[in-house]
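Input sequence (140 aa), recorded before submission:
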Amino acid sequence: MEDYKIKVQKVINERQLSSVMNNTKWRGLQSAIKEEFPITPSFQVKFLLDDYAHPEDFGEENWYSGDWEVDLHPFFAVEWIRVNLKVKSSKGLLLETKVTDYADEFIQLLKRLKIPFVKEDSTILIYGYVRSTDIFRTAD
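Predicted structure, token format:
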């Protein structure tokens, strides 16, 4: 694990990144989603040492839940998480598929937990590291 931490720190230094999350905030988010949120939204995670996000294929609307029980440890290596808050549900072949958007509820949760985020279309990005906090500024 020590070698992994050194590699992560090297990437942080080379890319001149600043941390915007910590273990307490990541754990608080996981806990709030598991215990309070009406759904367990699907998510995509990008680790600092990986060239791609997991899962690679991440659609606008998902029919599956995210595994928020999974250990995102080491948190210090999470570059960002993209959370999909549009959920498809089908009630059979004859009825139209319903899409429910939980973005507003999720944004309220993030604000309560004081977690910075960026809304991108149908997803919310939560960064572990950024180059500049300007990405969190909203247009008035």
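Checked by second reader. Helices lie at 2-15, 23-35, 103-112.
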